[in-house]
Every structure is written in C-alpha cells, then in structure tokens.
C-alpha cells in the first residue's frame, strides 16, 4: 500500500538537502541534492562505496584532518547544521534565558518528541528526552520495583556505568546479580540466546542486554533474547547506546520493556543528549530518578524533571535527525559496515600479527572493530599511531582480559583516511617489533 511514510522509508528519509539551505553553502546544498537523487536508483552496496557522495557528507562536517578521529564510538562530532542550530538556540536563550528557554523553546519539545519517536519506531508517549544513555538506563535500573533476592542477568561486557548501577542496587536492596562472560566475537544466535536462557531461573526478574557491546562492536540478537525472556515473564532492559542510529532498526522490532540511548554517539546530536524508552504499560510503575510531583503517573514526561539543562542542545537534536534521515538509516549502516570491511580486509593482509576481536559478518558487527597485535602492548601501538604524522586518535580497550585498539570511523570518514590508517598500523607495528 502506498503511503507517505512507506515512500519516505524506501527513499531513505524525508529530509532533502534543501532543508539545510540556510546553513550550508549553496554549492554544497546543490551537490547534496543532486547526489541524493542519484542515490535513489542505486543499491545499498553501491551507495556504500560511492566516495563522491561521502566526500560531500564530509564537507557537511567541520572535522579537522588531524588528529584523525577514529574514535567516533566514544562520542561523535556534529554536522555543521547541528552545530549551527545549537548556536542559534543558545544565542536565543542568552537574550533572556528564563523567557526563551521556558516559554519559547520548551514549546518545541512535543514536536521533537514526535519526530524522535517516528525515527525510533515507537509511540511518542513512550519517549523521554534526557542527557545521555547513562541517565536513561540508570532511570530504569534505579526505578524498577525489585525486592531482595530478585535476580538480574547481565554480562561482564556490559557498560561500566550500568554495571555499577546494578551493583549499587545489589548493595542497597539485596537483589542478586548473575553474570554472563562472553568470548568475543560470537557468531551464533542460538549459542548467545542459549547462554541467557541457561542463566534464567524462577527468581529472574530482569535481563540487561547490551545491543552493541562497546568494547568490540559485537551485536547481540536483542529481539531473540527479549522474546525468550518475555515467555518466562522476565522484563528486558536494552542498552542501545551504540546501536541507535548506527544500525537501521526500530524499537518495536526488538520489543523491549525499556531501552536507553545516547544521541551524541551515532545520531551526531549535540553533546549531552539522550533518550529513554519505556513501554507504555510500564510507565506507571517505573519510579523517576529525578523526583516528579506525580511519580506513579502514567505519563512519560515524569522522567523529564531534570532541572535546568541546555535547551539549545535538546532542540538541535531535530537537525541531527534531519541529517540522519537525509543520509538514510540503511545507507548509513551499509556505509559504516563497508568502511570497517574496507580497512580490516586490507589490514589482515598487510599488518603482521594483527588479531580481530570483532566479527566480519553484518549480523554481528557494523562500523566498530577492535584489534590487537601479537606480542605488542596496545597502549604503545595507540601512542605510536597518535605520535605519527596523522595523529590517529583511537579508542583503547582494557576490559577484563581483553586488550585492543578500537577503530570507529563515521560517515565523514573516507577510504583514503583508512588507507592511511592501515599504512600507519603497519609502520607502527613493524617499528615497535624492531625495538
Ligand atoms: C554500551 C554503552 N552504554 C552506555 C554508554 C554510556 O553512554 P553515555 O556517555 O551517553 O551515558 C556507553 C558509552 O560509551 C556505551 O558504550
């Protein structure tokens, strides 16, 4: 059936480049507009490899060539249109903060909620806008009604802030934490789901699932885990800090009870923006982390009593969604996967003693990849990369027994940047081996 939303999903987003016309140069807008039209007839694979298109995307950012930023997984830069929106709203706020923030900008929160919900694939009454994934997930972790002896299943590979929040509940409330410990990478859904199922018991009340694991970019089959948990009456919490806007998915495709997201990672929204999803039927019973006058109300807005924060950052999320929709979520995922595949295939051939801790399969990975090197201290390799002419900035992973360098390009990264990465990896590894 034809309708506007289906059509928009097919062409990969509603936003045309003309929406950016007041904020980018007219020649860049014209080129982006023409490129978008050209993309419509192309397969995702062809789009992912089209350097001419991605060079235009790079021009829509203000990233400097050095240091070469390959740690977008930590936090991503914003396209110029997002920075401009942030600055515009910030200037407006400074004309009279309490008037402009609370009487003017606050009015824009509901349309933003709707736009975010459309993009995320859920009802707008299930979305609260906040400051980061930690805040979203800790609202869930501390807000759930659990009793002494109730069990929570989580993994050693979950994110430290979330692990610490659960440990605090263990210490404070006497809940019981049961830990999974993964051998990454994993490429078998049945095996992964089986590990969770084996840990479930009659006392299990909650399963905490990291959709994409920070350390290596491992994707877990979140929907399958949510489904087996629900069959046993176990509630699911999904940490989608890395998967949201890196992978093309809708929250309702996974069907979790709760989910938390960083918007300053792969959506490239302003720093200090995040989103909380609570399934409609769970809102009433989840306590807000920041007290609200009606804490047991069935209204998602009770999770937004955060006090004064940056309204400029919040409102500029809108332009980040527009930019994301202009690229198209599927196209973005295809490009990020392609970039990972491009440099890792080359590095496998050219860098002696390199080990990959990330899967090469699209079901289990996307743009993030973590590597280590036979007999070499990864901190020394990372220092050598940064100490070289291109000042390559990477993520350093020291998690339990895993040691690695995490490479996470973004949509503004070009093949030529990754050619430099592989050359530099080779140079640094050989130089360190000679010492
Ligand atoms: C899996 C995961 N969850 C949560 C977070 C926390 O995100 P934020 O800094 O937005 O709170 C991170 C940050 O890297 C992460 O990787």
How would you sum up this structure, described in words?
Residues 1-14 have low confidence and may be disordered. With 435 residues, the chain is α/β, with parallel strands linked by helices. It has helices spanning 4-11, 26-39, 44-48, 51-59, 80-94, 97-104, 109-120, 133-143, 160-173, 189-199, 222-231, 251-254, 311-327, 329-350, 378-387, 415-434; strands spanning 68-69, 127-130, 151-155, 176-180, 204-210, 235-239, 258-262, 274-278, 354-356, 369-373, 392-393, 395-399, 402-407. The protein is 44% helix and 14% strand. The strands form three sheets. It has a seven-stranded mixed sheet, sandwiched between helices. The chain has a four-stranded antiparallel sheet with strand order 9-10-13-12, with helices on one face. The chain has a two-stranded parallel ribbon with strand order 1-11. It has a domain at 97-321: 3-Layer(aba) Sandwich (Aspartate Aminotransferase, domain 2). The protein contains 16 helices and 13 strands. The longest helix has 22 residues, at 329-350. Helix 9 links the parallel strand 3 and strand 4 (176-180). The protein is globular and about 60 Å long. Helix 5 (80-94) runs antiparallel to helix 13 (311-327) and helix 15 (378-387) packs across helix 16 (415-434). Bound molecules: pyridoxal-5'-phosphate. Pyridoxal-5'-phosphate (PLP) is lined by residues 132-134, 159, 161, 210, 214, 239, 241-242, 262, 274.
